[in-house]
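2024-03-11 09:14:02 DEBUG pipeline.ingest accepted 1 chain
2024-03-11 09:14:02 DEBUG pipeline.ingest length=215
2024-03-11 09:14:03 DEBUG pipeline.predict start
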Amino acid sequence: MTKPQFIISTLIIFFSGLSISLSASSQTIDLKALKDFSPSVIKQTFEVCSLVKLTPEQQVKLASAIEKENEKFIENVKANEGVFTVKGNNQLKKMRETTLTSLLDREQLEQYYRGLFNAEADAEGNAVANALQKKYNLTDQNWKFIRVAVYKYALDSRVIKKMYADQPKKAAKMIADLKAAQLKTIEEKGDIRIDPDKLTLEFLKPFDPNALHKE
């Protein structure tokens, strides 16, 4: 087996194993389509493909763009005596944003951002629910209602900001409506009204001390 064949075989084993732990919406990459790219570029391409499904043609275009990003990175580091500057980092971020918005259709781009921000949104949902649980001794159900609603708001608001970055007023209106709708679900399901920013809660009906509480 030649060295290139060994590298590709190793990557196939690595990526096949890694893909098992990813969500159902993720995918493995097309190593045949990417055979002319370096392992580093293939790895970076895979990181995007783990969040959104891309065609082999899209993967090749993405890999080509990543090659240019890597070249820009080397240029920046060489020009600054081994230091990767903030300006250089912002340039690379801009390059990636431009690549994704030109390469992905609207549905793909939304899927990508949902995957990108999922962990942050999940953490925010848990943080708000746990903080209110500590202050108000929530029932298990109300803890879940809050966590889910805040998670959905946190995720979708981040996606909206990205998708409508060039329309800030429209984005702000959509996010405000989204927040109101999600907070409304908590009121309807749990008979409680919360302010996730101030971490306050109001019971809309007499509190039942015998209700099940989150342990």
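2024-03-11 09:14:41 DEBUG pipeline.report Strands lie at 192-195, 200-203.
2024-03-11 09:14:41 DEBUG pipeline.predict end
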